[in-house]
Specification:
The structure is a homotetramer.
Chain A lengths: L1 H20 L6 H8 L3 H7 L3 H24 L5 H18 L1 H9 L6 H27 L9 H17 L1 H5 L5 H16 L9
Helix pairs in contact in A: 1-2, 1-4, 1-6, 2-3, 4-5, 4-7, 5-6, 5-7, 5-8, 5-10, 7-8
Chain A binds a DNA duplex (21 and 21 nucleotides) through helix 1 and helix 3.
Chain lengths: ~200, ~200, ~200, ~200
DNA sequence: CATGAATGAGGGTTCATTCAT
DNA sequence: GATGAATGAACCCTCATTCAT
């Protein structure tokens, strides 16, 4: 229990520090101070600085994926599903600004390892979008000339870019609901066979 | 001329090295070796490592902006203009993979300074999209309920995410033309007043 | 008794670990693991890492000295006595390779403290040789021009160097008996008044 | 020339510092300070701390071997040759106390690498003794029942042990000449066929 | 202008030691 | 007494930057 506690305290501190200073600029002692543990304590739970980054990603992102998939399973309409994904993503990013930056900034990082890791892992996440689109195509709701793997990137990229600058400018301008509505209205109109046919 | 030469040799070397190793992992000596100059020589042209990054961005991205704006001035149809932007962006990213990574990876990095810098600078670039949309709205081609500053992010984000994974998976799968066509077909259908009204 | 048990378990574990990894490279946790106690337990029996080293030396070497002196007291012939010392030393080193290395490697180490310590302690051990030689000189068996304190170092050094490389090369080549015979045949011939006068 | 200078300044400083504090206790900054260079400068000439140790050994010991072999080539009498070796060894150790300790203390150290290294390298050195003995056996001067590879260890060990405690106790008591004479008188008497047959 | 040897601050990591349980 | 999680001082090494040549 105590160890559990400390492990997540470090993860959470690291998420905050990485987001604020960036992986390379962040010092282990920053994380330690933020987590209110000694520097050395961190190495009881992680092998090295890089391992902390991976763990932050693994653990925190895992939660989002899990949560999103649960919600999606309760809904059949591919249009509603796309909306769920968008809202979940934006909510998660808004709720955990620190994490948002870690995902967006750090995991676009250099190391091959991380790239592969992300590719294996984020595929799961963005793959959800492609799956929704494919389902929509089967039910004749989405245009069959849309390539799911291109569209998923476009959709994810749109959401990602918007939450990227969240802190800076969009902070007070738009709510998650407004943004999701705009993006959805564009994409649904863009990929539906009959754009006038909107979900109720 | 010789100095000019050396300056751009360093910029070009830095672009390559930053893309390959990342800003923080890249060493000045790596850039010097790649540029075939002495380490110290770099400091005759740049104040510090960080200054090199800014310069890479400034100079290389400047070219793209300039080029894109020139092409756009020759075309009036907002739908064609959006297509021009998409194609120009994808072509530029494809042509200069190194630069593409520098923009995508490094400039999402760390320091507030860079963020502000980017915001001032990239605003110009993404601002082009917003301008196109506003024009289209005036001429009644684009839906008036679309928020240009949200749509510009969505559009840029879509393009950006697609070129991000370029190297990895899309390498051989799709041509720039195909990708641009897909994205355009989604976005135009998404934001036009009359989706069936496509440019010839 | 239980404490006694733990104390010697640690000593024995430390001897093994020091020999294998060297004093500085050995970690307290290595010793703890080898002794099957917790790291902290070690500090119930020893003041610090260095104290363990001293104790290893003190206890283990003490046994050898004691044993050797007992055997020597049963023999009067200085030539036989030298043989006893040589055989006892080689046997002890062969029997306890770990200890052998600790003595040879670690106690030539660093700190003045240890040097003085060794000087005080090993003097007892090598002093045995000097004493044997002095006795032999009194009985007219050993040459009177031999300086006992030089000869003792030469004799001990010869034995020490031979057991140093024991593991490596001499492992299978020579038995303790053979080696002792060779060394003795050289030294006795070297320091006797009448080299042809060998003990039966 | 300048680099040469700095390289040897570091070697020499390291020899001194290693001898004084021991390899593990010595800090890089100690060596740097002693050599009057910056810490980082050391890494322009050596890969790591351990590499410095190897280099100290390699360079300094190399000189001794070279010098000793040159002198030996000028002398045919195996008894004189043994004397030359003893005197050269003792002189070298006396002249360079620091080096003496490095050889004796540090190179008995742990790492397999160093052991192998030493075995390969010191074999050359102690091998000289074995060779002298073999030659003496061929010319009928040394006893044929002596095993050269045991005798070489005994002889080297005797010299080594004596110079080991040099600083401590023998400092003022005996000169190199006296010591060499004693050791030689023991060993020559010990290994000659006719002990009374001494070189003039 | 150009060089690259030299600098030295900075930080990741280890591990002897402590102490609450 | 015994534990082992936690501590934090210590140190090797890197690399951006400088400057004498």
């Amino acid at each position: 229990m105590k160890a559990e506690n400390k492990h997540s305290k470090i993860i959470s501190a690291a998420t905050k520090v990485f987001a604020k200073k960036g992986f390379f600029t962040a010092r282990i002692s920053d994380i330690a101070k933020e987590a209110k543990v000694a520097d050395g304590t961190i190495y009881l739970y992680f092998n090295n600085k890089y391992d902390i980054l991976l763990s932050v990603f693994e653990e925190e992102v895992g939660k989002i994926v899990e949560n999103t998939e649960k919600l999606l399973s309760l809904e059949d309409d591919p249009r509603k599903q796309l909306e769920i994904f968008a809202i979940q993503h934006l909510l998660a990013m808004k709720k955990n600004r620190h994490l948002a930056e870690v995902i967006q900034i750090e995991l676009r990082q250099t190391h091959k390892i991380i790239k592969e890791y992300r590719d294996n892992n984020f595929s799961n996440y963005t793959g959800i979008i492609a799956e929704i689109i494919r389902n929509g195509q089967k039910s004749g709701i989405y245009r069959s000339d849309i390539k799911p793997d291109l569209a998923k990137r476009a959709f994810f990229g749109a959401l990602d870019e918007i939450s990227r600058v969240w802190n800076a400018s969009l902070e007070t301008n738009y709510s998650v609901k407004e943004i999701a509505t705009q993006i959805l209205s564009i994409f649904l109109a863009g990929i539906q066979v009959d754009p006038s046919n909107l979900p109720e």
